[in-house]
Amino acid sequence: MNTRTYQRCTSCVMDTTDPDITFNEQGVCNHCQRYDLLVRDVVDRATRGERTQELDAMVARIKEAGKGKDYDCIMGLSGGVDSSYVAYTAKRLGLRPLAVHFDSGWNSELAVNNIENIVKRLGIDLYTHVVNWDEMRDLQLAFFKASVANCDIPTDHAFPAILLRQAARHGIKYVLSGSNYATEFILPSSWGYQSGDLRHLKDIQRQFGQGRLRDYPTIGFFKQYIWYPYIRGIKTVKPLNYLPYNKFDAKQTIMNELGWRDYGGKHYESIFTRFFQGYYLPTKFGYDKRLAHLSSLIKSGQLSREAALEELQQPTYDPALQEDDKKFVAKKLGVTVAELEEIFARPNKDYTDYASYAKLFDIGLRVKRAITKL
């Protein structure tokens, strides 16, 4: 339990609901300091249009690697802002992407419509992987029963497994990622363990699940971080870091050009993620991910701190819809609302309470950083 005296950063809106947050003498948090040290120059240069030559060079490499193939790149498409704008940008740059969608069983109707409009208007091919629902349901319920913060791991783990398999199948050498510094650099590690750890996922399934994962797409450390990138030569690039990427301008563009419709909060294109981020995390752990999302926008100059604080005065999303979502989630997971609430009331756990490859991932990250500096 976090017993610290409450404090909010004087530069962004992060606060002591992040148990690992620290502040300097001016009251500026460690997240802001990391942003200023590591990525501010990159974001500012991109915003001023000073990374276009780097972007052009990257696009040329992608096109060269894709000569004679059906596609020169591959990308995930969730129907959200970032992936939709990446698809729009890819076509604008003359690339030939294969879009991949993971149907986890939780798509909102709006997300489905967005995806259909995007692929139709851009004329790109779409591969959709529909999950084995019995396994997905069992795994998601297992994560709730484990009482950990990141219960979105079942979705976030499967997606790169599917994406990289399809890249290898089609001989594609480049993955276009919608991940970017301007709108999502800040996210406390204390708010949830990363999704790539297969050992962690399997241990929770073993302890709390009812069956084995036979069809659910998994990917281990070796395949994700060694086999695919270094042996198969599949590289992940982040084009939004080379562009003047403004979330609000991007929304307007995809609305006008692709018939995209807004679905609310970040990642709320999934009903499960909406409920997980907007209800489960705030009520069980006291974590409001809007703090991180809004803080990234503040740091990149897209939102004032005052506007962010005003937004935080509002509920994460409509309370009536939260109750509807709770009933829907319970029914879809095969439990009653009372049973789901009993599960949520169990003592909170940390990812360290379960098996993981955390040390291996830490070593891998250090090696990657060392190589990057060479």
Automatic annotation (TrEMBL):
MF terms (GO), sorted A to Z: asparagine synthase (glutamine-hydrolyzing) activity
One Pfam family this sequence matches: Asn_synthase
Domain Asparagine synthetase: 77-178
Membrane-spanning residues: none
Biological processes annotated in GO: asparagine biosynthetic process
SUPFAM superfamilies per UniProt: Adenine nucleotide alpha hydrolases-like
PANTHER family: ATPASE, PP-LOOP SUPERFAMILY-RELATED, EXSB FAMILY PROTEIN
Protein name: N-acetyl sugar amidotransferase
Provenance organism: Achromobacter marplatensis
Taxonomic lineage of the native organism: Bacteria, Pseudomonadati, Pseudomonadota, Betaproteobacteria, Burkholderiales
